Amino acid sequence: MLEHIIKFSLKNKLIILLFMGFVVGFGIYSLTKIPIGAVPDITNNQVQVITTSRNLSTQDVEQFITYPVELEMANLPGVVEIRSVSKFGLSVVTIVFEDDLGTYLPRQLIAEKIKSASEKIPEGFGTPEMGPITTGLGEIYQYILDVKPGYKDRYTTTELRTIQDWIVKRQLSGIPGVVEVNTWGGFLKQYEVAINPQQLNAMNISVSEIFEALEKNNSVAGGGYIEKTNQAFFIRGEGLVTSLNDIENIVVKNDGVPIYIKDIAKVGFGSATRFGAITGNGEGEKVLGQVMMLKDGNSKKIIEAVKERVASIQSTLPEGVYINGF
């Protein structure tokens, strides 16, 4: 057999030369299409079901959230392993599937089971959700929202966190291959109403009445439309709160004399409870952004796209603030 191949090759040098040229050309083309990554993703085929709860202890999270979710996922086809972590206010259930099922079929199967699992969790304890389509090796780009010298006193960590969440994060979202942008550090800005218990008792008002007043006075309602000649005028009731003053002037009770929020409470800016912080270069607290890549994505191309977007975002940031990639 080998002798016939050698004879054929010697008699048809041009054909063999063209064939070898095709093989070399195809090899060079294939080389340019190979996804290149610093760390190959060897994570098994897994999906995480994450449930957050505000104030449940570890034992309650395990009993009322983690166990019902594990029980529902146990009968899914192709399941290799189920493991979980229960912490204060957090439940993470990891379901490992056979590799042959692919990436999206397991998520479809879990989506069908999440609804039945939610019905077994007591109301108000939390709603289970699937984690993003990424892995622990999907962290492809990290950056700090930094401040230039001379502007250090102008921005607080709360303001930097707000810039990250409302400007940077939203512009980084939507890049092909980017599945999630996480934020770490800083203080999450909130509107806070600090109630005075003595004034509540004096005016015979309950805390639930304050909650109800705040909810009802922060909404938008549609009312159809009115036709006039060749025009249509749309009716809407706009009651969205836009400032601290709007909150202060919400009426809680009206028995001839209106009682406002400002009469029984102090309104101001605060921050959500946090369980950690980010520091850098010995300069104190920082605000960090983390770009997560879609599972099995081409990390080289996605990182290049992220860097291009970061360069365009720089011009939209407030004076003195810049994205410091590390």
Structure description:
This protein is an alpha+beta fold. The chain folds into 3 domains: 46-130, Alpha-Beta Plaits (2-Layer Sandwich); 139-187 and 274-325, 2-Layer Sandwich (Alpha-Beta Plaits); 190-271, Multidrug efflux transporter AcrB TolC docking domain, DN and DC subdomains (2-Layer Sandwich). Helices cover 37% and strands 28% of the residues. It has helices at 2-11, 13-33, 58-73, 104-120, 157-172, 197-203, 207-216, 244-248, 261-264, 299-313; strands spanning 46-52, 79-87, 90-97, 129-130, 139-147, 178-184, 189-195, 220-228, 231-238, 251-254, 258-260, 265-271, 288-293, 321-325. The strands form 5 sheets. A 4-stranded antiparallel beta sheet has the order 2-3-1-4. β8 (220-228) and β9 (231-238) form a beta hairpin. The protein is elongated. The chain starts with a helix and ends with a strand. 18% of the residues are buried. The mean pLDDT is 89.
